[in-house]
Amino acid sequence: MDASESCQNNDDAESSRTASLKNGATQFKIERGTCYILFAYDVGLSINLDDAERRITSTKYRQTIKHKRRAPHYFEYDPPPLRITENVKSQSLFAGYCATTNIDATIYDFGAILVTYSIPLSGSIFELLSLSNKLYDNNQLISDSRNRIEQLVAMIEHAITKPKISSIVEDYIIYQIETLKPVTGISHILADNSHLLAQILRAESSSLSDQEVEKALACCISFSDDDMLIVDWNATLLFDTDADDVLAVLEYANVELLEMRYLDDQLDNALDESYKALTKRRWERKVLFRSPADDLRHIAELQVDSALLFEGVNNAIKLLGDQYLARVYRLVSDRLHLNEWDTNIMRKLQTIESIYEKISSNHSTRRLELLEWIIIILIAVSIAVSIIPKFI
């Protein structure tokens, strides 16, 4: 079989899978919608948002949660992140798809920046499956987002504490579908198109098992009969006409996952350095001109930086109480396993604290031993001084 025949067979198989999905799905079209592609980066320990705001000339504003539903006043960011809108020429992202003229960047005070691309959606729901496959690990978008981050960091570098762009990037996709044709109940969409929606969320062109479909659609929530949110680890499907508040929570959860991944990686390095400091021999310290006090200061700095980042991320948004946004956040947290990341990070912080205590204890023991030897030497000298004159 030559290459052309193989490609033809692949196209036929893809057409067959699409036809199979269409036969079992409700035929409806997206009249209006938007695909948001998110890329989160860590760029430093913290960012002075007031200083950064003064240095940025693009359109900017402080982002707050626009409550569509009744919610108490403490459903808010603390402090509000700085959102920048850059007007650019409509650019081709990949074959057949173009970004809108606005690309947003959201700056968080705990050292993270989120770049958001927007693609208008219209046409058959089946086109989302092709789009999801093209967006999965799209190197062109990753490269473009990193270039934008580098330019932004260069602009606000003096507002960043310990500026450094991490190699870790966390991407996420949100498909917001506002209006459909024909108008149909949201519950029917999920019931009649479960396999298709699961494939879109998982960016899988091949058909999924019933068990995998059930897992992909397990995290589903609605506030009314006219909206629905389906959250998965790679993407979210959002059927809603006015969802700025939900979008803000989804964006924040993606940034939080990035920071948990970054912090976990930093703690792994800190554990390695702490263990080396703990097992370092005396002659190594002399060769390297490094005292136990230097190791203690270094480990303490690692502890403080990690603790500040951990607390900053976890306290940046206030979503308390049994309200809809809080339930959305808990749903996203469960799907992204944020609680497991928190537990893992807390355990590593405790391990570093234990190592710090051991090094501190060893350092104190050596100081006591040194003081004992000094006392012994002083006693010996005093005895010698009192005895030697008698023999002269």
How does this structure look, described?
With 392 residues, the chain is α+β, with helices and mostly antiparallel strands. The protein has two domains: 28-243, no CATH class; 256-380, no CATH class. It has helices at 3-23, 49-55, 127-135, 139-156, 186-192, 194-202, 210-216, 244-279, 282-288, 292-314, 324-336, 338-387; strands at 29-42, 46-47, 59-62, 76-77, 82-87, 92-94, 97-98, 102-108, 112-124, 160-161, 169-181, 219-221, 228-231, 235-239, 317-318. The radius of gyration is 29 Å and the shape is elongated. The relative contact order is 0.13. Residues 1-24, 69-75 and 283-289 have low confidence and may be disordered.
State the main characteristics.
392 residues, alpha+beta, 2 domains, two-stranded antiparallel sheet, 12 helices, elongated
Give a brief rundown of this model.
The protein is an alpha+beta fold and 392 residues long. It has 2 domains: 28-243, no CATH class; 256-380, no CATH class.
